[in-house]
Amino acid sequence: MRTAMRQGKLAAAHGSGWEAMRSELPNLTTFAWRSVHDIRFSDLDPMGHVNNAAYMSIMEESRTRLLVETAGKAGASTGFTMAHLDIDFVREIGWPAQVTAAVGVEKVGNSSIHILQAVFLGESCAAHSRTVIVSFDLERRQPIAIKREMRELLAAYAIQS
To answer: Can you spell out the DSSP letters for 49-95?
Structure first.
């Protein structure tokens, strides 16, 4: 009962966007950026399904590929740091398997990029997340504005309704 109460308070604290994300599973066609990943035997936990940390690693790999590619094309020499992560685990994935990690840009702020992600087994969503990434000056150790060129490139990966 305590868990249910905490979950209710957490959902209330995050507002309607949080609830909408939980109630509607993403569709693969929503995302313009996709990468394919093989599930490794070492990704499994003692229960025989993919461990929750492996989902996050798959999402990180896909998100990083997108950011490195767009930053490189934009001529940006910047780092990125994660400021926020919400993740929902929807279904189990076993081994062997191949999954598709999908990434979409929800919003680009002055120094932040709000990203929606999902891991799909076939057409079925297995996990989805919302992440906020901040453009970061690695020498000064502070957030920096996202260049116009990068904003334009990221627009190609906007979430499709």
So the answer is: SB-HHHHHHHHHHHHHHHHHHHHHHHT---EEEEEEEEEEE-S---S
Backbone angles phi, psi at 99, to 5 degrees: -120, 160
Structure tokens at 125: 């969503």
Coil, strand, or helix at residue 114? Answer: strand
Residue 154 has pLDDT above 90, yes or no: yes
Q: How far apart are CA 113 and CA 131, in angstroms?
A: 8
Under a CB-based contact definition with an 8 Å cutoff, are residues 87 and 129 in contact? yes
Tokens of 21: 């994300």
How far from chain centre, in Å, is Cα 85?
8
| DSSP three-state, residue 115 | strand
Q: What is the pLDDT of residues 73-128, one digit of tens each?
A: 777 767 899 999 999 999 999 999 999 999 999 999 999 999 999 999 999 999 99
CB atoms within 10 A of CB 144: 16
